[in-house]
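Researcher: I'd like a candidate sequence for this fold, 186 residues long. If you have to choose between options at a position, lean toward the conservative one.
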């Protein structure tokens, strides 16, 4: 028997339960013959960086709330099993009795996968952009507005050690990359 081509479909899930749906489907793929028909289950997420009380907080947020992407070959009971997974409402585009869900177009799949990859690559807090000896201006915190020079980079803590002059004395500050900006050459 020739293997049929798997296509991407969108499952509508209860908002906030997307991770649970993915967990259930991944378990079913491993432990049942559903793995022969379903190859991937994805929830595209993005990393959101916020500053709370002066500390950088990174959270993951769903790009498409209420949707789970599934690469599957919908033959036999596969569609029924996917539809009847806990917290799944139905397929997107599969309305009405006996209707077949519509697969995503290739361009939509590439955009969805590309967006997920780009966002994962953006785990960039700007730390790697700085070098020892570079002049920077403090933009956040009690020393905002002071100029200084980077004297050390702590890769483990992702911190910069910047020496600024306060009342004519050099004072070391430990800052995050988001708290400083490059000083423009004069």
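Model: Candidate sequence:
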């Amino acid at each position: 028997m020739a293997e049929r081509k798997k296509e991407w479909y969108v499952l509508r899930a209860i908002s906030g339960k997307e991770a649970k749906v993915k967990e259930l489907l991944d378990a079913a793929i491993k432990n049942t013959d559903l793995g022969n028909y379903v190859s991937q289950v994805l929830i595209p997420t993005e990393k959101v960086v916020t500053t709370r009380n002066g500390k950088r907080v990174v959270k993951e947020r769903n790009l498409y709330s209420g949707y789970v992407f599934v690469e599957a070959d919908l033959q036999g009971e596969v569609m029924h099993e996917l539809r009847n997974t806990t917290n799944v409402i139905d397929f997107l585009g599969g309305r009405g009795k006996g209707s077949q869900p519509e697969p995503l177009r290739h361009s939509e799949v590439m955009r969805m996968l590309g967006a997920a990859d780009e966002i994962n690559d953006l785990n960039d807090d700007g730390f790697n952009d700085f070098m020892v000896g570079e002049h920077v201006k403090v933009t956040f915190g009690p020393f905002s507005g002071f100029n200084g020079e980077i004297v050390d980079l702590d890769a483990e803590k992702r911190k910069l050690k910047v020496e600024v002059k306060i009342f004519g004395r050099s004072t070391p500050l430990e800052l995050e990359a988001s708290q400083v900006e490059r000083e423009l050459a004069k």
